[in-house]
């Protein structure tokens, strides 16, 4: 079981890295060495890391390119924000937050499942284009959605606020393009880090389970997978739904960190989907640790470079190119292998020498 | 009753009649050979038997059950497993995992159990490992269980593909040119392996092959295809001495 052991080691190192970074940031914050702007970016970094992990499950293990994951994040964010606001005064903080996570994730999973049914009939570029369209549809529908609540129950409209026909005492929860405002800000850095670690462990478990093996078999060779009796559609659906659920979880975290949640192109649209894909590709397809690191670096970089206003985007693009070369260029890969800079070699050097787990 | 009964099977791709009036009866425990010149339609027959192509005419019965036009996965569950002419392994997974994927339908635990690693996960995985290693050891591949499938040498990849097919516990095993690209020594090993798996797994085998030494050495019966039609059928020695066969396939 040497192989399994190696990947377990890798997971443990990843968790170690995340915990160390968490401690460093917390200490820096406590001693006043961290700007409040940077401190404020920590929860979004974790949220987008989650979405990147979810997308990596889809791209790296299911082998299908999805450009709609910002849409699933959007579903998770809005359903949970809606729930938290409606029950703001009726359910105590902690159980409400937990329920918000369950509801947001479940709704994203449901949307993922429903969208997967037509989408997984396609593959490759076609699948990417259709998921892109679904992502945009979700964002645009939420942008024109008005939901209010009063004594008579929930009112829905896609025209304007007035057509909700609310009673005087009613409250508008989702206000069209202005989105949801006043969501309780409950996502802390600690909760985000714990969630990220839990999700990393669970996705690791998934990938190394009977179902995960089947999903990878389908990715590697669909015809061979069919001839050994694997139900293709079932496992594709499971993987895509799970991937959407993780993106939704990221959305819940994100929604409970900002006071004003809007479905703009930059937060949940096409731009964001591409950005998350960039995190996944640069972090290494199928490499969850890489996704987390790439997200952290690329999300924080513009803020870190704030001092160099004029050169900011220049440096950002250079970093993108360097990361890409580091992960994909054949010459550099050979050099890394020779000098022990591969993930496996670094893990062996610094990773804990853990005895066989199974 | 025959294990496999194929009656007047045919398929057309547009105007091309690739296979026509194909009949075949294989008894339980037989080692049957399907030969013919390139493009005769041998692999097409395999693809129809495993549901990758849907036949336009004819019927296929496995153990008396009609499996014509069923889904590939269901046909595998009914008892047909196969290998491919151009090897189709799960290259990014270990040798052990390739066989464990073959065992997928014989062992069961849910997705949730796997994600949460409930006790059942550990007990079933342990059984699967044991069974997979057992199958691998028949092929002498157990020492390479942790190697990535794509890193195996060619001959061993072919053997792994057979191991994976056997893991699905089939009653009929289809081998598509198992000796393709092998040197004489490897071919000899392969013949021993085939004899061994017949004994160990009690499986009926239908194989496509070009290597006449292998065919005449191990096949009990033969069917010769030419231009999508059966040219000759019967005991190996009789078929190979049929003047029609010699003319069409072995050269005058």
From TrEMBL, chain B:
Organism: Pseudobutyrivibrio ruminis
Domain of life: Bacteria
GO MF annotation, one: L-isoleucine transmembrane transporter activity
Residue stretches making up the ABC transporter domain: 4-252
A Gene Ontology term for the protein's cellular component: plasma membrane
Keywords associated with the record: ATP-binding, Nucleotide-binding, Transport
Native organism taxonomy: Bacteria, Bacillati, Bacillota, Clostridia, Lachnospirales
Biological processes annotated in GO: D-alanine transmembrane transport; L-alanine transport; L-isoleucine import across plasma membrane; L-valine import across plasma membrane
Transmembrane segments: none
UniProt name for this protein: ABC transporter ATP-binding protein
InterPro entries named in the record: AAA+_ATPase, ABC_AA/LPS_Transport, ABC_transporter-like_ATP-bd, P-loop_NTPase
